[in-house]
Amino acid sequence: MERGDRTKIRTTVRTWPTRAASPAGVLAPWGASFWPAVAETLREWARAEAGPGRLLPFVPVAFGGGIALYFAADHEPIAWVAGLAAVAFGVAAFLVRRNRAFPLAVLIAAFAAGFAAVALKAQRIAHPVLAKPVQAATLKGFVEAREERERTDRFVLRVTEMDTAGRAQALHRVRVSVRKGAAPAVGDFVSLKARLLPPLSPLRPGAYDFGRDLYFQGIAASGFALGAITAQSPSSDGGWRLHYAKTMQGMRDAIDARIRLALDGDQRSIATALITGRRDAISTSVNDAMFISGLGHVLSISGYHMAVVAGVVFFAVRAALALIPALTVTFPIKKVAAGAALAAAAFYLLLSGAEVATQRSFLMTAVVLIAVMVDRRAITFRTLAIAALVVLLIAPESLVHPSFQMSFAATLGLVALVQLGMPALFATADSSATARAALWGGREIAMLALASLVAGLATMPYAAYHFHRVTPYGVIANLLAMPVVSAMVMPAGLLGLAAMPFGLDGVFWRIMEIGIDWMIVVSLWVAALPGAIGRIPAFGSGPLLLASLGIVLLGLLRTPLRHGGLALLTLSTGWALLTPQPEILIAGDGRQVALRGPDGRLRVMQSGGDNFRIRQWLAADADPRAADSASLRDGVSCDADGCVGALADGGLVALSFRADGVADDCARATLVIALAQPPPDCAARLISADMLARSGALALRRNEGGDGGFVTVAVRPKGLDRPWSPAPADAPEGGLGNAPMQRTVPRSAPVDATSAAPDQHDED
């Protein structure tokens, strides 16, 4: 062996430390070199994530975090203080714009701005909310909106005069349910009597707050018409907003009437939903099948519909202009087509009611089309960030709505999928014609499957949290139905709209019906597959927030740091699945109680029957039984005085209707829910009607300390006081200042609009 070779070998060997060189052993120096390398790698990744252009996508995330903090507060913040704080943080971020702290300062300023935006809006729209039911109120006002539903209709009334004999304060806007077909037209000035109820509070702790939604819509109460609704002559014209609502509603009614001439049943309802956004008339069976199969997104005007509308108009206008050879050289036909598509998308936004998902879709589409007109890249995270910021600025309360959460989660996943490029799915330049053709077909199928899978996975945490179910066969349903919807249903609908002024729309509605029939067949078939309903028990907001952070990291980060999002998603899944379920659920009025029996399933004790609440409780417990199932009464004994049922440990729970039976229940039961006046010396744990009036619905579970007590969670915990859920007042309500009654002239014969007794309950 030559000398040079020996030197080379010795040099190679000495790159690894020997035991003699390190008395502490091999692991210490290996660790000493390994951890600095890891730290340096993490710093490199962090620098890459904080590079130019990487800050904007995180700004709406921070903005939304501030909105979430507002809704988590126990008391209403002082809006002007929140606004000043946001301005101060914004100025501070501007001053450090050349400092390393600038990205952090911008995110803090965005967080403060989100908090201030929703606080200022809540102050701007502040209005009274009905605190107690009013059995009979005389109302006069303008009809601002109308909804058709499967069994009843309802409308929103802007109240100008209200008489409740001094039992409630004046309300600005109420929502009234009426018998099917009895809702007055938008823009009418009407007089009616109605039973008014406070906005629906959460049906259990952690459930969705319908009252919060109604508050931000300006609705102070919901109720049911009693007797006839009389159209009268108003003393004013109602303002431009009412004229706009009347015009758009008239347009939707005209479209629905033309569709009704050609179609009926669910086909007509779905066609109307796709064109105008009115989807409340779809039958319950088909509506449930659509959502169980994963096709429910088709019924909500969202990015897919907006993209189809803009895409069809874009390519139609561009193709028409390309037929003129002179324009193809001297005229920017691509930009003109983008402008026409933008106008069509704006019209579709107004026609469909401009819901949150539609707003987001229009903004995304508008940014893409504007990018085409100015020769910029269209589909980016910046596009999504701008759309999210605009939506949250206009309607910050939409952050807590499932439509916003699922819409943006799905879009984030799809944009991330596009940004990855999917190079394996595209033909290369040196492929043969046959290979390219084969790859094209496989590519389209793979792209559709991947898009469905990514969107489904991104929205799964929100579907599980809000609706307590997931769609395991969503990819199958979308692969079978979406090509038909894209190629037949939506284009036919657009052509039908264009042909309506000429009276030639009937054939297009028939073509649309063929595609809708196929979509219904697919949804019913997939919904009937074994395991199609992936039921998930209710869990708290903690796992949802953790999953949301995981989705954001997985979608927005570009370095291997994104895999931290997978870790957060895994942790949130385990947290959600390990969430303990309550042993007892008590309705806010005390008339319904669910308790967990020896078999681990819920039993129901009740006075009266609110099936909507029972359905929600069963869904939150991942229980497939129907609300009228006889098994819900197993082990429950009821008589005129009340009901008694046993928990899994043998303890008795009593629901007492009358004072005569409360004393006996106190002596035998572990827990007593007393609707009547209880005795002062009740030995059992007692929950009275007054306690429920203050706390709302309750969820109870056994104390893990083993003392036999209960841990109680309330919808309105002590100290909570928000505008949509005000703390109960100790003093009685004041009188109602009524506006003077004015003489009006009837315009049409009154029609009895009272809903049937089974339909007189508030559902959302």
Please render the helix and strand layout as text.
Blueprint: H1 3-13, H2 27-49, H3 59-72, H4 79-95, H5 102-124, E1 134-148, E2 152-163, E3 173-179, E4 189-197, H6 210-216, E5 221-232, H7 240-262, H8 265-276, H9 284-293, H10 303-322, H11 325-330, H12 333-351, H13 356-373, H14 381-394, H15 402-420, H16 433-467, E6 469-470, H17 474-499, H18 506-527, E7 534-535, H19 541-556, H20 563-577, E8 584-586, E9 592-596, E10 602-606, H21 611-620, E11 636-638, E12 642-646, E13 652-656, H22 659-668, E14 671-674, E15 685-688, H23 689-695, E16 698-702, E17 710-714, E18 751-752
Parallel strand pairs: 3-5, 13-14, 14-15
Antiparallel strand pairs: 1-2, 1-4, 2-3, 4-5, 5-18, 6-7, 8-9, 8-16, 9-10, 11-12, 12-13, 16-17
Helix pairs in contact: 3-5, 3-14, 4-5, 7-8, 7-18, 8-18, 9-18, 10-12, 10-13, 10-17, 12-13, 13-14, 15-16, 15-19, 16-17, 16-19, 17-18, 19-20
Describe the structure.
The chain is an alpha+beta fold and 764 residues long. It has 23 helices and 18 strands. It has a 5-stranded mixed β-barrel. Strand 1 and strand 2 form a beta hairpin. Helix 7 (240-262) packs antiparallel against helix 8 (265-276). The longest helix is centred in the middle third of the chain and has 35 residues, at 433-467. The chain is globular, with a radius of gyration of 31 Å.
